[in-house]
């Protein structure tokens, strides 16, 4: 079998799908995208074509190394997301060719169901109580919300108290019947993270995500030494070569590689194994579409240390498109009180509505995240 064509489709709300064709008629789908940079990733995917066209799609490991090493420059969000989408599509083809789901190719199930969580509260986490109540009434118990709005390098006790008060409302309304991660979203500086985490401790969030920006990763161990709250990070790290340093330094209890940013299934399986060796959990990051989510779940179902899976159903970013819009087999993504069962279809298990993908890709608006500024006019981390 040989790879014959790569076609990319930028689709609302902010995703990109990759369709890989073969000379035997088998099609594989991937989701290479960095939110807000779809055009860059689209170019990076098509730059990989000389390494892929005419190649045997079964040789996933060799093609992964070729895509990673042959172009001399490597790593980073754009290149690794391009590789991720191709990798996902190659696993999809392999599973379809052999008639088995990808998790079977990776050694089979380690669990019967996987716990997931969704977002509440939006960019500026307001009205989370009603959002959580709706989800609790539907049987869900695990969520994530932004831990704060923009935060100055050195900010005030009022800013800290506002963030803490919102979380206190959740505990007051639901007690410990719910679990939630607080995403600092890279908005919090190293000094303010220590202050904010300390004030949040009594409210016992399940984890603190991106307590500081990935470029401040050397501070993770120091922050972890000051708190008992589990720290989580990974959505802005793009290969096992980045994760190895974080694991060696310690401080992170939950790694969150993104299956569409960190090199795909081939790479994230390796990251999961490295994490397990350090007694670190994985909770793959996934604010994206169905192919990314399916890829996460195949890694979850074969990784003993996978604990939580993010999904983007109902996420505040999904204006103009929802996770299952492009999926024909919606029933395979049903959440039962937040848990999801393994998808037993061959490959990744996503039956793509190709006609809708082509239609929605024709005039797909560019999504960009908002640009925030502090009161003094300086750029704020979003
Ligand atoms: O944890 C999460 O889902 C992420 O922080 C998410 O909010 C961002 O990655 C967003 O997708 C960037 O455009
Ligand atoms: Mg996050």
Automatic annotation (TrEMBL):
Q: What is this protein called?
A: D-galactonate dehydratase
Name the family.
Answer: Belongs to the mandelate racemase/muconate lactonizing enzyme family. GalD subfamily.
Q: What is its EC number?
A: 4.2.1.6
Q: Which organism does this record belong to? A: Verminephrobacter aporrectodeae subsp. tuberculatae
Name the needed cofactors. Mg(2+)
| Domain of life, per lineage | Bacteria
Q: What does this protein do?
A: Catalyzes the dehydration of D-galactonate to 2-keto-3-deoxy-D-galactonate.
InterPro entries associated with the record: DgoD-like, Enolase-like_C_sf, Enolase-like_N, Enolase_C-like, Galactonate_deHydtase, Mandel_Rmase/mucon_lact_enz_CS, Mandelate_racemase_C, Mandelate_racemase_N_dom
Q: Name one Pfam family in it.
A: MR_MLE_C
Keyword Magnesium found: yes
Q: What else is known?
A: Reaction proceeds via an anti dehydration.
The positions annotated as site (Increases basicity of active site His) read: 258
Give the pathway annotation: Carbohydrate acid metabolism; D-galactonate degradation; D-glyceraldehyde 3-phosphate and pyruvate from D-galactonate: step 1/3
| UniProt keyword list | Lyase, Magnesium, Metal-binding
**What PANTHER family is this protein classified in?**
D-GALACTONATE DEHYDRATASE, D-GALACTONATE DEHYDRATASE-RELATED
């Amino acid at each position: 079998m040989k790879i014959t064509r790569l076609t990319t489709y930028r689709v609302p709300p902010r995703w990109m799908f990759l369709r890989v064709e073969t000379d035997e008629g088998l099609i594989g789908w991937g989701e290479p995208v960095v939110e807000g940079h779809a055009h860059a990733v689209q170019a990076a995917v098509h730059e990989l074509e000389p390494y892929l066209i005419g190649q045997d799609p079964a040789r996933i490991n060799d093609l992964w190394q070729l895509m990673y090493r042959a172009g001399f420059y490597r790593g980073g969000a754009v290149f690794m997301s391009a590789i991720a989408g191709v990798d996902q599509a190659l696993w999809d083809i392999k599973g379809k060719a052999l008639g088995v789901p990808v998790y079977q190719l990776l050694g089979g199930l380690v669990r019967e169901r996987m716990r997931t969580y969704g977002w509440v509260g939006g960019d500026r986490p307001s009205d989370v109580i009603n959002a959580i109540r709706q989800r609790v009434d539907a049987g869900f118990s695990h969520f994530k919300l932004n831990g704060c709005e923009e935060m100055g390098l050195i900010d005030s006790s009022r800013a800290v108290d506002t963030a803490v008060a919102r979380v206190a409302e959740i505990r007051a309304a639901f007690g410990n019947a719910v679990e939630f991660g607080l995403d600092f979203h890279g908005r919090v500086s190293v000094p303010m993270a220590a202050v904010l985490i300390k004030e949040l401790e009594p409210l016992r969030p399940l984890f603190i995500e991106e307590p500081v920006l990935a470029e401040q990763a050397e501070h993770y161990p120091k922050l972890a030494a000051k708190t008992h709250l589990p720290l989580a990070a990974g959505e802005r790290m793009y290969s096992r070569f980045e994760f190895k340093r974080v694991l060696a330094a310690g401080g992170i209890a939950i790694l969150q590689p993104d299956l569409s940013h960190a090199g795909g299934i081939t790479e994230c399986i390796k990251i999961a194994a490295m994490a397990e060796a350090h007694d670190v959990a994985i909770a793959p990051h996934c604010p994206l579409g169905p192919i990314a989510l399916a890829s996460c779940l195949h890694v979850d179902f074969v990784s003993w240390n996978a604990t939580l899976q993010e999904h983007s159903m109902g996420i505040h970013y999904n204006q103009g498109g929802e996770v299952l819009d492009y999926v024909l087999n919606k029933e395979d993504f049903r959440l039962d009180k937040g848990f999801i069962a393994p998808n037993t279809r061959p490959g990744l298990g996503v039956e793509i509505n190709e006609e809708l993908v082509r239609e929605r890709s024709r005039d797909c608006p560019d999504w960009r995240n908002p640009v925030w500024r502090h009161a003094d006019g300086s750029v704020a981390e979003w």
